[in-house]
Structures are given as C-alpha cells and as structure tokens.
Design brief:
With 165 residues, the protein is mainly α. It has 6 helices and 2 strands; from the N terminus they run ααααααββ. β1 and β2 form a beta hairpin. α3 packs antiparallel against α6 and α5 packs antiparallel against α6.
Length: 165
Amino acid sequence: MVVFAWILAALSPAASGAGTVSGSTPRTEDGANRPRGTTAMVASAAHPGLGQLLNGAECKAAVVCAVETFLVAGLVVEDRRARNSLRLYKQTADDRYYDEYSEHFDKRQTLVWWAAVAALYGLADAYVDAHLVGFDDPPAPRVESSFGGDGTGGGEFRVALTFRF
C-alpha cells in the first residue's frame, strides 16, 4: 500500500512540476503539461506503457504494454511447465520428463532476457519522450508563388520553394 501511495505521489501534478510559476515544466505547443523524464520512467516501471501514456503516445503505450504483458505471461507459463516437468522427473525418473524440463527451462531463460530488454526499452523510451516534448517537428517545405505586374501589360511570375533547417 505504501508503494502505491508513493507512485501516486510521484505522478501527481505537484511532483511533476505542473502548476509551477517558474516555467520549468515541459509544455507542448497546445500548452498541455507533460511529465518530467523521471516521472514518466517511474510510471513506466509501475505499469508497462504508463510512461508512454503520460507522454501522450497512446499507440506506443498500447504496444509496449501488450509486448511486456505477452512476454511476462509466456514466462509464467514456461516456468509452470518447467516446474511440472521437473516434478514428474523426480517422481518417475523418466528421462523424457527431464528433456521436457530442460526445454522449458531454456525457453523460460530466453523469455527472462526478452522481458528485461522490453522493460528497459519502455523505461528509456518514456524518459526520452518526456525530454523531447518541446522539440519541434521540422516544418514542411512551402511553395510560394506571386505575380506582379507593372501596369503596362508586362509582368513577372515568381515561384519559390522554401525549406527550414
């Protein structure tokens, strides 16, 4: 219960700097507050995809949550299968059960690594996205045209292609 209260306190607007007068809170172009990097990272550690959700990346949050949930569920299933095969091997001394245990153990260890990589990716992504909130996307190139006449029937037509770097 204490951990849950700590997470709620870390995600509160006061902890993320919302409502401060100093202007240090990251804001988007539409003026919405975004969490600081550490707040987004703690949220992502508390629940997969929550940090991405706080950063406003709903689609990325759904993908991160689904991948981490899938990996952890597979890890739990392989752990149960490995334990069951080991128990059967100890009861019967049949080498077939030991081979099954070895196979499930290897799958479980692989899933542990993949789950750790996915969790670290979710933490790092939430942290970096929170810091890139104010970073503008490059504007699209503009094509401008103008027609000017001098009143005597002659004139000029100008076309300009503008890029900003």
